[in-house]
Amino acid sequence: MRHEDSERSMYIPVFADVKTAQVRIKPWVHRTPVLTSSFFNRMSGADLYFKCENFQKAGAFKVRGASNAVFGLSDEKVKYGVASHSSGNHALSLSYAAGQRGIKATVVMPRTAPDAKKDAVRGYGGIVLECEPSTAAREAMLQDVVDETGADFVHPYNDHRVIAGQGTCSLELHEDVGPLDAVVAPIGGGGMISGTCLSMSNVAPQTKVYAAEPENADDVYRSFQAGRIIEDDAPQTIADGLKVSMRPRTWHFVSSYVADVLLVSEEEIARTMYLVWQRMKIIIEPSSAVALAAVLKNTGTFGGKRVGIILTGGNVDLTKLPWMQGLGLKNTSGDTL
Q: What are phi and psi of 180, to 5 degrees?
């Protein structure tokens, strides 16, 4: 999009931006809890610390970046409102933040996005415009909105304000549990991973950051191997929040700081989501399960270590759960769940 080429699009955020964001967003977000699970510790052979952004305002970590962007707007810019495109969590997070500041939010969402997320956006007062399920369709419709209204475009991840806001999540995790050997988070466009890299490289440079990705949407893995951005326009995965591709700013952090990109199957995502519901008694969405699934799949990498896992959100359509969709889930004994 042309608006991604604005002056701020080339600014790479620094740790001071994360600290500023932490103060700015404090009245508008939760400091989410960190949970542990002896069950998953045994399964992984590691000490796991779950940063529960599923308990965040609007049900996802993205409210951090959205709030930082919205409350950082000048009085002049704010009167035109904000706009973005999103499969769900950024859309409802931006709508929440805009509502708190009393301004208009317009979000372009793929028609295939979960109804629960579209309803949540409307519930926060956001305006939903539906488009075909591709990055190109999202960006074309959003460009029209910005051109017509003058709204400030808050990109879901390729925005220094958003990355700085997301960086407050892993900063809190470090403050609460101390040094970790690794932090693992899901990756789609890379906003959370970028913020995690930004914070960890400053407060705990010895901590390795791993990105976890669905096999069915493995553009980050292929980019990491090739040393350049490779995009997928409309991958098919139950992890609906991870279908978008990286942009230059997030690629900067992934290529510079990420230790590895780990892939998991659709069945592994669904099974892990099910086990978290069953054993930890908390609701997470498929995208959130990707990070834990990667740890459970790579016990040789994480065994014996202190590992932080970002549970990125809990916005899921309860009528369309993965284990209702014929994925043939199996438990640890190989029996169908």
A: -120, 155
| pTM of the model as a whole | 0.92
For the record, the structure tokens of 263 come out as 């892939």
Question: How do residues 276-288 score in pLDDT, each as one tens digit?
Answer: 999 999 999 999 9
Q: Which of 312, 320, 317, 305 is nearest to 289 (CA)?
A: 312
How far is the C-alpha of 24 from the C-alpha of 44, rounded, in Å? 37
Residue 251 three-state SS: helix
What count of Cα atoms within 13 Å lies in the side-chain half-sphere of residue 232?
19
**DSSP-based three-state secondary structure for 82:** strand
Are the C-beta atoms of 37 and 280 separated by less than 8 Å?
A: yes
Write down the pLDDT at residue 330: 56
**pLDDT higher than 70, residue 300:** yes
Residues listed for the chain: 337
Q: Enumerate the β-bridge partners of residue 330.
A: 336
Closest CA to 154 of 244, 223, 83: 83
Cα(320)–Cα(130) distance, integer angstroms: 20
Integer-rounded Cα Rg, in Å, for the chain is 18
With a CB cutoff of 8 Å and minimum separation 6, the contacts of 133 are 110, 111, 112, 113, 234
Q: What mean pLDDT comes out for the span 73-98?
A: 94
| Cα–Cα dist 108/337, whole Å | 37
Dihedral sign (CA 105, 194, 40, 264): positive
C-alpha–C-alpha distance, residues 299 and 278, integer Å: 21
Which 3 state secondary structure label does DSSP give 298?
Answer: coil
Integer Cα distance of 195 and 160 in angstroms: 9
Residues in CB range of 225: below 8 A, 6 or more apart: none
- Structural element, H or E, at residue 105: strand 105-110
**Helix, strand and coil in the chain, % to nearest 5:** 50, 15, 30
Residue with tokens 């899901």: 186
Residue 254 near residue 211 (C-beta atoms within 8 A): yes
